[in-house]
Design a protein that fits this description.
The protein is an alpha/beta fold and 526 residues long. 47% of the residues lie in helices and 14% in strands. The longest helix has 20 residues. It is globular and about 55 Å long.
Length: 526
């Protein structure tokens, strides 16, 4: 029996299992046994903090249960369900950035890896975290950006323009491609690794007895808000993660809401029609806060009009006010646009560092947003707008948007990963000169695989692969599905092998395109 006592005290998980299968008389005995072993903890080598937490949770839970306090009992049962995560982190040794990042990935539900299982359909945790950190989002101005496609590009362009105005500008985007710190920037500089360590340590300390179970996204959104608050930014561009209405970013009341466009994506969470998805995106519209819609559509316009009217939010459709001519390519690799408002040319020879032809739509959204911010008193000279667009990648570190990563043969990657995004990519491929097309593609399993495959060119050589994440679709399964659409090629177990094979097979006048998933691009870019 003494061996059992020691085992129960050292392992809270075995103790919980033991107690839950015994009657209350046994539970009282075990609680007293744990009290008795408190005096022996040093002799049996138990970490003091570890033991303190274990004793607290067990004692508090079973005392309340004996007293039949229903509401408190339910709360404490959440504590017990969190015990494994909380007690498996030894805060006194988790001191490096690498250790903290591993904690974030390994202990929190992470949508980019786990998909739907990590999605939270409420704002409970976000609100609780906001209270925990004393409402940091209330200490700075924001612009909120949602949309199926283009929201990342629009967010980066707006941040770059505001930086050029001299405003201290925060930028929160997701997902990252290479480095977690890409998500949170001030004036283009990635978040300080020391702040990441300090924030997570502070959270773990405050969460000892609150026992929140946030997702990766919920916690990192609050990290961004706290970082922007403590660094006293003038304004922050906040990109929605998924949807809008229930997204963790949606506790802010911004200066301006922006919704770029609506197409089918994440239909298992947001709805299977454009109208349903638009309603979720419209959830970021706030009372009396102006809203810019990037692209009009007959199935979504009535949704946005209805929600904006109900909330007395001024509504403007960018594509109904601004028209853009065909982008020209300069010798120094910039797209050049002329923008009209009605019949009047309002911007001539705007130079954009981003090379995707789909950016013509996004640039109109950005200009409409800039005009609205000017109406609200933000000082944005034309020179700042021009410089911000021309240096958007340089200023904000944006990558993966029709990015050229090699020459002879030309190698291009793009993060377009849904039907709307891939349609734009295929259009641009068709306008790009090449002798032969080599297409490296991988996808995640929860996308509309058939809808995307149906868009792809039949005359390319395909290199089917998978990203190194659990959500990735098996490369052989992808190849079999592609065969139904007369897409032919070989499968490769890693992105590096697929890209390597494409390089070996391609002549200098060929084109290698890499895409299908953000995670494929993340592994391919330097």
């Amino acid at each position: 029996m003494s061996g059992l006592k020691i085992d129960l005290v050292i392992s809270p998980f075995k103790t919980i299992e033991f107690l839950q299968n015994r009657d209350w008389q046994h539970n009282i005995i075990i609680i007293k046994m744990i009290d008795a072993f408190m005096v022996m903890k040093d002799d049996i080598g138990i970490n003091n903090e570890y033991f303190r937490l274990c004793h607290y949770f067990l004692y508090f839970y079973f005392t309340l249960k004996l007293e039949k306090k229903q509401a408190q009992r339910a709360f404490t049962f959440r504590n017990l369900s969190s015990l494994f995560t909380i007690l498996s982190i030894k805060s006194e040794i988790m001191q490096t950035y690498e250790e903290v990042i591993n904690y974030l990935y390994d202990h929190l539900p992470y949508y980019q890896r786990s998909g739907q299982a990590a999605y939270k359909d409420n704002l409970d945790n976000t609100i609780a975290l906001d209270i925990m950190f004393d409402h940091p989002h209330q200490n700075f101005k924001t612009v909120h950006v949602a949309g199926t496609n283009g929201k990342g590009s629009v967010s980066h362009m707006l941040a770059s323009i505001l930086m050029e105005c001299g405003y201290k500008t925060g930028l929160y985007t997701s997902p990252h491609l290479k480095d977690f710190r890409e998500r949170i920037r001030i004036n283009g500089e990635k978040i300080d690794p020391d702040f990441v360590v300090e924030f997570v340590s502070e959270f773990l300390g405050m969460n000892t007895f609150k026992a929140l179970e946030p997702s990766f996204f919920e916690l990192t959104v609050m990290m961004a808000f706290d970082y922007f608050s403590k660094n006293k930014v003038d304004i922050a561009i906040i990109e929605v993660g998924l949807g809008g209405r229930l997204d963790s970013t949606n506790i802010i009341k911004p200066e301006l809401s922006v919704i770029t466009n609506i197409s089918l994506d994440h239909t298992y969470l947001l709805g299977d029609t454009l109208g349903k998805i638009a309603l979720e995106k419209a959830g970021i519209i706030k009372k009396k806060v102006p809203v810019i819609i990037g692209e009009s559509h007959p199935q979504t316009g009535m949704i946005f009009h209805g929600v904006a009217s109900e909330l007395s939010a001024p509504l403007d459709f960018a594509d109904q006010n601004f028209k853009v001519g065909v982008g020209l390519l300069s010798k120094d690799n910039r797209q050049i646009f002329t923008i009209r408002k009605g019949e009047k040319v309002v911007y001539q020879n705007l130079r954009l560092e981003l090379l995707g032809i789909y950016q013509a739509k996004n640039i109109c959204t950005v200009i409409a947003a800039v005009e609205q911010l000017r109406h609200q008193g933000w000082i944005i000279p034309e020179s700042a707008l021009r410089n911000g667009l021309e240096k958007v990648c340089e200023n904000t570190g944006l990558t993966g948007r029709w990015q050229v990563i090699g020459a002879n043969p030309r190698i291009i990657c793009d993060t377009g990963h849904n039907e709307g995004g891939m349609r734009e990519v295929v259009t641009q491929i068709s306008q790009t000169p090449y002798k032969k097309l080599h297409f490296v593609i991988g996808m995640v399993s929860d996308k509309d695989i058939a809808g995307i495959l149906n868009l792809l060119p039949r005359d390319a050589v395909y290199y089917f692969t998978r990203a190194a994440i659990p959500r990735a679709l098996d490369e052989n399964q992808l190849m079999k599905m592609a065969a139904f659409f007369n897409l032919k090629g070989k499968s490769f177990p890693s992105v590096a092998e697929a890209v390597g094979s494409a390089k070996l097979n391609a002549d200098k006048d060929d084109l290698i395109f890499i895409g299908g998933s953000t995670f494929i691009v993340a592994e391919a870019i330097p």
